[in-house]
Amino acid sequence: MRMTGENSSGNTETTMEDVKNLIKKKDDIEEQIKAYYDVLEDQGVGSEGPLVDTEGYPRADVNLYQIRAARHNISCLQNDHKAIMVEIEEALHQLHARDKAKRERDEVEAQEEAMEQQVVLPSPFAQVDAVTQGSPACGAGLRVGDEVVEFGSVNTENFQNLQNIASVVQHSEGKPLRVTVIRDGQKAQMSLTPQRWSGRGLLGCNIVPIHR
């Protein structure tokens, strides 16, 4: 059987085009067998009819050469048909097995890719439990429920208490601070500038420590 695909190890692989070619050959063989059966029917003897008369002499009313040739060709073609059906079955089996293996590889690769994309998030040390509308915190995009992992120079590693954040805010009035929070399981980063506004304090939000 002609193979058109070739894998990395140099072995040929069955392709869908190969299967289509095999099915076309099978159809051609079936057409030829039918044509030879038509010849036998035209002669009136079929595939089993006698070629001698009642006295044992070759029949003169039929074309013996044509009948014998048709019967011989039918026998050969039937063998070819059996062989090509086996080839088709094997080719389909190989295609299905390869498709199954590919699906399994794709699933494994997808799982590995998903695991690689999962970033280990740092542990938050504080949480936002109130944000006043129109405040600097609100304008920066801070939301209630945000878990703080970085507030200016304060982070998970050096945080001790809320005084750390208060100190950073007092020394950063009018200067943008980088604030990183965990929101809906993902990191979100924003720039928050402590400044005077119509409400209390320089931020307009309330932050509480997370006790682990």
What is this structure's SSE topology?
Elements: E1 5-6, E2 12-13, H1 16-43, H2 64-117, E3 126-131, H3 136-140, E4 147-151, E5 154-155, H4 162-170, E6 177-183, E7 186-192, E8 205-209
Antiparallel strand pairs: 1-2, 3-4, 3-8, 4-5, 4-6, 6-7
Task: Note down, in words, how this protein is organized.
The chain is of the alpha+beta class. Helices cover 45% and strands 17% of the residues. It is built from 4 helices and 8 strands. The strands form 2 sheets. Strands 3, 4, 5, 6, 7 and 8 form a 6-stranded antiparallel sheet that branches. Strand 6 (177-183) and strand 7 (186-192) form a beta hairpin. Helix 1 packs antiparallel against helix 2. It is rod-shaped and about 125 Å long. The two termini are 68 Å apart. The relative contact order is 0.10. The model is unreliable at 1-10 (pLDDT under 50).
Largest sheet: 6 strands, antiparallel
Instruction: Estimate the global geometry from the Cα principal axes.
Output: rod-shaped
Unreliable stretches covering 5 or more consecutive residues: 1-10
What structural category do the secondary elements indicate? Answer: alpha+beta
Rg value: 42 Å
Bin the helical content.
Answer: 40-55%
Beta-strand proportion: 15-25%
- Separation of termini? 68 Å
For the residues shown, what is the average pLDDT?
88
Q: How many H/I helices?
A: 4
Q: Would you list the SSEs in sequence order as H and E?
A: EEHHEHEEHEEE
Count of extended strands:
8
